[in-house]
Write a structure and sequence with these properties.
By secondary structure, this protein is α/β, with parallel strands linked by helices. The protein has one domain: 3-Layer(aba) Sandwich (Glutaconate Coenzyme A-transferase). It is built from 4 helices and 12 strands. The strands form 2 sheets. It has a 10-stranded mixed beta sheet. A two-stranded antiparallel ribbon has the order 6-7. Strand 11, helix 4 and strand 12 form a beta-alpha-beta unit. The longest helix has 9 residues. The chain is globular. The two termini are 24 Å apart. InterPro entries: 3-oxoacid_CoA-transf_B, CoA_trans_fam_I. Belongs to the 3-oxoacid CoA-transferase subunit B family. Pfam families: CoA_trans.
Length: 215
């Protein structure tokens, strides 16, 4: 599996059985392909509750897409509704878990995931609504950017999506929880050492697992 698929599989344990879950654009959408059938009720901002896995080649319905305009399937019993109703669910606190991507995460657990200065953007979309309205927010992101620079930083240089901190950060290397305004390392991916995580993380964090040892 590539890094993105590894991250998606590592997110699954953070989704409670039967939860209403919104999967953000990018890596989060891959989580749908790794969830056991009927494990959760997946919701998308454009108006579908009951999103299924990615369709097989040649079986995509061009009218059935998620908020990122990529093809999806619908589980039996899925419901369709207006995007305004979907945002009402989000803002009303009816989405239990949101899984979002991130460009950067700061030392307090706040994220920037919608705008890169100097580059054209379409807007923040539903990210700020999900950050404020969802019960639990899980970030699914690669540990570093394409140029190798850390995504977990002391202060975000990109515009913050919201002031609310996320609850969990999952990368291909490690998992952090945000506790008392700071990052706590709670899991290392198989074969990854604490030294590797420290070398690729630009924000301070506490170590919350006894088995995390330096190489």
């Amino acid at each position: 599996m590539n890094a993105q698929e590894i991250i998606a599989t590592r997110v699954v344990p953070h989704i409670p059985p039967g939860a209403v879950v919104n999967l953000g654009i990018g890596i989060p959408t891959l989580v749908a392909d790794h969830l056991p059938e009927h494990a959760a009720h997946l919701q998308t901002e454009n108006g579908l509750l009951g999103v299924g896995p990615t369709p097989l080649p040649g079986e995509a319905d061009p009218d059935l897409v998620h908020a990122g305009k990529k093809p999806v399937t619908a589980r039996p019993g899925a419901s369709f509704f207006a995007s305004s109703d979907s945002f009402g669910m989000i803002r009303g606190g009816h989405v239990e878990v949101a899984v979002l991507g991130a460009l950067q995460i700061d030392a307090r657990g706040r994220i920037a995931n919608w705008s890169v200065p100097g580059k054209p953007v379409l807007g923040v979309g539903g990210a700020m609504d999900l950050l404020v309205g969802a019960g639990t927010v899980v970030v699914a992101t690669t540990h570093t950017a394409k140029d190798g620079s850390p995504k977990i930083v002391e202060e975000c240089s990109y515009p913050l999506t919201a002031q609310r901190a996320v609850d969990v950060v999952v990368t291909e290397l490690a998992t952090f929880r945000v506790v008392d305004g700071g990052l706590v390392l709670v899991d290392l991916a198989e074969g990854v050492t604490l030294d590797e995580v420290r070398a690729q993380t630009a924000a301070p964090f506490r170590v919350g697992i006894p088995e995390a040892v330096d190489a």
